[in-house]
């Protein structure tokens, strides 16, 4: 498996609202077209109204590369920069865990 955690900090409350809308549109494309994307979750952080944390888990590197090539992902990547003041990415190397698949 291949994964990452991304911390997005929005510029202000108005951009956070626009970012959340962009995320919603992007998630629909992921659900419909990316069978290799195992987990793609977005979290708000209590007490940090401008922060969003993404947790992404892919079947393998090829599934991540496929995700990056999708039109909905390209749209997200192109539109997000105007809404954000900071982006931090941590690439994950799974050591141990429990994964349930349908």
TrEMBL record:
InterPro entries: ABM_dom, Dimeric_a/b-barrel. The keyword Oxidoreductase applies. Keywords: Monooxygenase, Oxidoreductase. Residues 2-92 form the ABM domain. Transmembrane segments: none annotated. It comes from the Bacteria. GO terms for molecular function: monooxygenase activity. This is Antibiotic biosynthesis monooxygenase.
